[in-house]
Amino acid sequence: MIKQITSAANPLIKQIRALERKRTRSETGLFVAEGARLVLEAEAAAVQPETLLFTAEARQRQAVTALVERFDRSGVQCIETSERLLSQITRRENTQNVVAVYRQRRQSLRALDATSHRLWVALEEVRDPGNLGTILRTADSVGAGGVILLGRCCDPFSFECVRASMGSIFAVALAEAELSELQTWSQAAGGAIIGTSLRARGRHDALPSQSGPRIVMMGNEQAGLSAEAEAACDHLVRIPMRGQADSLNLAVATAVMLYSLWGAEGYPGARP
Ligand code: SAM
């Protein structure tokens, strides 16, 4: 049954607004995604929201009408509300007129089969949610198995990260792990950890061919990879640089690495 809520004092709206805070997201295990496109992408990845909120105007669009009907039938809490309340939830003036609340999905590394994919990404202490979201999107674009977070990383379920991922947060597996676990996981699958560092000698496009999975490991935006992380790598490579910049942005460097490794195999699985 579709409910209508127009008051900012409604307890459900208050709870959803509180998901802006990391603490509330951690406590509830929920997060917010904005826009009908993202909700449709989640649905394509077989992920349903707990709650769907939309304006009366959005509901006039055929795709949204059909979405609301499908979700309502399958027990998702569907709420028609005002643009003003959606703006309060998303903290944006020109907000999307469809917003959904999802349950966070994190996997343990043990639950992921390293041999199921040729490429994986490991990020040590990534701090910028825009970078993390962009990396999720890029990992999805090359068909990587997932993104593994090492150490104290930013929250993948923050508004900014979810926005930057453009729906890929629903398509790519996310795991948190210790460095030693990652090494064991990679070794058990006959994989190779490829670390990236400005101090490396080897070039990113001169890696030996490898039959097992490749885990591309990227460092923190300021400090780069820690000495322990570098020591855990099977290969350490750098992307050539010239000009004034001393390094590439983390998300850009990840894209260079992933496309280089995928491209070296002739882009298997790419859309025609
Ligand atoms: N000052 C940091 C350092 O000395 O490593 C720079 C960090 S950089 C902004 C963030 C991450 O992007 C690095 O840890 C590395 O993983 C990757 N990266 C950026 N540029 C790179 C390059 N030219 N070669 C290899 N990795 C690079």
UniProtKB/TrEMBL annotation:
InterPro entries in UniProt: Alpha/beta_knot_MTases (IPR029028), MRM3-like_sub_bind (IPR053888), Ribosomal_eL30-like_sf (IPR029064), rRNA_Methyltransferase (IPR051259), SpoU_MeTrfase (IPR001537), SpoU_subst-bd (IPR013123), tRNA_m1G_MTases_N (IPR029026)
Pfam families, sorted: MRM3-like_sub_bind, SpoU_methylase
Coiled coil: none
CDD domains named in the record: SpoU-like_rRNA-MTase (cd18095)
GO molecular function terms noted in the UniProt entry: methyltransferase activity
Keywords: Methyltransferase, Transferase
Residue stretches making up the RNA 2-O ribose methyltransferase substrate binding domain: 32-108
GO BP field: methylation
Lineage: superkingdom: Bacteria
Family in the record: Belongs to the class IV-like SAM-binding methyltransferase superfamily. RNA methyltransferase TrmH family.
UniProt name for this protein: RNA methyltransferase
Organism: Aquibaculum arenosum
